Amino acid sequence: MNITTRMLAAAIAFTGLSATAATTVDIDLGKKGAPVAPTMYGLFFEDINYAADGGLYAEKIKNRSFEFPQPFTGWTVAGNVELLDNGPFERNPHFVRLKPAGHPHKHTALENEGYFGVSFEAGKQYRFSVWARALESPAKLRIELVDPAADGETHAIAQQEITVMPGEWQKYTALLTPGATVEKGRLRVFLCRPESEVDLEHISLMPVDTWKGRENGLRNDLAQALYDTHPGVFRFPGGCIVEGTDLATRYQWKNTVGPVENRPLNENRWHYTFAHRFYPDYYQSGGLGFFEFFQLCEDMGAAPLPVVSVGLACQYQNNADSCHVPVDDLQPYIDDALDLIQFANGDTTTVWGKVRSDMGHPAPFGLKYIGIGNEQWGEEFTVRLQPFIKAIRKAYPDIRIVGSSGPAPDGKDFDYLWGEMTRLGADLVDEHFYRPESWFIASADRYDSYSRKGPKVFAGEYACHGAGKKRNHFNAALLEAAFMTGLERNADIVEMATYAPLFAHVEGWQWRPDMIWYDNLRSVKTASYHVQKLYSDNKGTHTATLTVDGKPATGGDTGLYASAVRDDSDGSYIVKAVNITGEPIDLNLKVKGLKKGKMPDTVTITTLHAGDDEENTLDNPRLIEPQTRTMTVDAAADWNTVLPAKTFAVYRFSKSK
Ligand code: AHR
């Protein structure tokens, strides 16, 4: 659709022009519906697609502690560099010794390639830091940010010198301000003349301008994009990475807290999970760890939902019982869950509360939820989950426990797991559905018939995977919006929902579609991002009944999906409507239960619309964006509008003050 047609469609939506017989949509505000949980629309973070190192975590140096299995991965070494392994950080013992190169015309130097390059922006400050000690006499280091492709006099875009003193290991820092923006730069560290010997460990380069200005910080544009969705819940640290390819590589939160220099490296299973997209340099530094995740939740006002291993290595890749922890040996895993709750909520006299406090956060993080296991299935799972539930209930009766319904959204295994989650008393069941267009078109009534007596629903991972495309094209986002009317209508049973995956580096992805894409300098919000944000920004406080011909609007023959909520915080009510057809739909909203004196006189209409195959890209990031306009409402109880073809619309009715 060209821009003129799109503007015309938007204009029709705004003016309420109508040509054909209208579809009557009945909305009843008389009876207060179920509360919409504050956690309803949230985010799910997994370190997949270089989401942590190389993504949200602002560190620019790959393999900063020389702990990769091949210790110089990411580094180019020149001159005389030795690797040693009795450094100052016991869980990251390796370090390098720079020695004279042996000839006045040779150099001893290190160069780091970063994640798809070391990027920097003109005029911004970058903090270089290193733990170092000189051996006998002071040693001088020259630190350079370089653009290897620069064809001027020098590659160096910024440089600084540091003098390292003999004696104990110390942290040295230098600020660099590049004069040019470079996407695929490098960091170089030279041993200068007169040469001395010097030991270096944990070589780091961070922008000063991180989100909230934190030294061990997050990339600004990406963290801000998360914050802007006002998420109600934040699930972390991931799905499959919680399990690991084997138990040794499962995510262990205790390895990700305390000083960053001493957080051990973990293999990231996504480096080889898909051999057709193989990333042998994909590891987890732990720099973005559980403290940082909890802090991010606090900053965003999102309820933290950490997930821990239930003692099962990824069940897809481990059939034999011997790959998993025997039920009788689960205690250390159960302790990890209990200690995590203490880390988040315990006072500063407790062992793990003190760790949190020593990291700069004496106040508790207010953890209310914990996930036990990711996408687990079968009796293998339920027999292990049971002792976790027992122990957590005993120690922390108020913590809400999230169980699993496996990888599929229906079928024998799914039914078995729902039965078991109910029997075991899980508070929520995590459902996952990466499904094609047809599934999303047909599933807006999914939760209408769910039992109201068992656990609540957490739609923990979902996305519309368009047939043969698997891209973030608009039609997929539109169908997600249509499906989500069913989440909203069933807010009495659906307590939280999170799209997945969240992040992807354009040069390092393993799984798509994803919600936010980026390269080293730019990021782009997909149409799916905008759908999530529109729901979150307009979640209201209580559901309101919305019907067409006495039934919920779930697509059917009309292609119209709709739901309504009221927002008791400001007296407004909100209608969400999705037209998945190629023709406009005339709507007549008939509203019951409006209170005299509180009649809305204003409607804010926000529409999201594009061609089926269109998508936002790094080069064209704002092709698809919500368009908003406010207009006066004369007759709120009986109001007409046209919902254009292929459009998600949010109508927010309010009374002007
Ligand atoms: O989101 C990608 C993966 O999909 C998750 O790690 C896993 O839980 C699911 O299979």
Q: If you had to describe this structure to a student in words, what would you say it looks like?
A:
It is built from eleven helices and 34 strands. With 657 residues, it is of the alpha/beta class. Strand 24 (516-518) and strand 25 form a beta hairpin. It starts with a helix and ends with a strand. Mean pLDDT is 95; it is low at 1-18. Alpha-L-arabinofuranose (AHR) binds at residues 46, 48, 238-240, 374-375, 407, 432, 461, 500-501, 511.
Keywords:
30% strand, eight-stranded parallel beta barrel, single chain, 19% helix, alpha/beta
Largest sheet: 10 strands, mixed
Low-confidence parts:
1-18
Averaged pLDDT, please? Answer: 95
- SSE-based structural type: alpha/beta
Overall strand count: 34
Query: How many helices?
Result: 11
**What percent of residues adopt helix (DSSP H or I)?**
10-25%
Roughly how many Å apart are the termini? Answer: 39 Å
Any idea what the radius of gyration is?
27 Å
Report the bound ligands by name, code or SMILES: alpha-L-arabinofuranose
Shape: globular
**Portion in beta strands:** 25-35%
Compact overview of the structure:
This protein is of the alpha/beta class.
Layout of secondary structure:
Elements lengths: L2 H13 L7 E6 L12 E4 L30 E4 L1 E5 L10 E5 L9 E4 L5 E3 L5 E9 L4 E8 L9 E9 L5 E7 L5 E10 L6 E10 L12 H8 L5 E4 L3 H4 L22 E2 L15 E2 L5 H11 L2 E6 L22 H15 L5 H8 L10 E4 L5 H18 L4 E5 L7 H13 L3 E8 L1 H6 L13 E9 L9 H16 L4 E6 L3 E3 L10 E3 L4 E3 L1 H11 L4 E6 L6 E2 L4 E8 L4 E8 L5 E8 L9 E8 L17 E6 L5 E6 L3 E8 L3
Parallel strand pairs: 1-30, 2-14, 2-22, 14-17, 17-18, 18-19, 19-20, 20-21, 21-22, 23-24
Antiparallel strand pairs: 1-26, 3-6, 4-5, 5-13, 6-12, 7-12, 8-11, 8-13, 9-10, 9-12, 15-16, 24-25, 26-28, 27-28, 28-29, 29-34, 30-33, 31-32, 31-34
Helix pairs in contact: 5-6, 7-8, 10-11
The structure holds alpha-L-arabinofuranose.
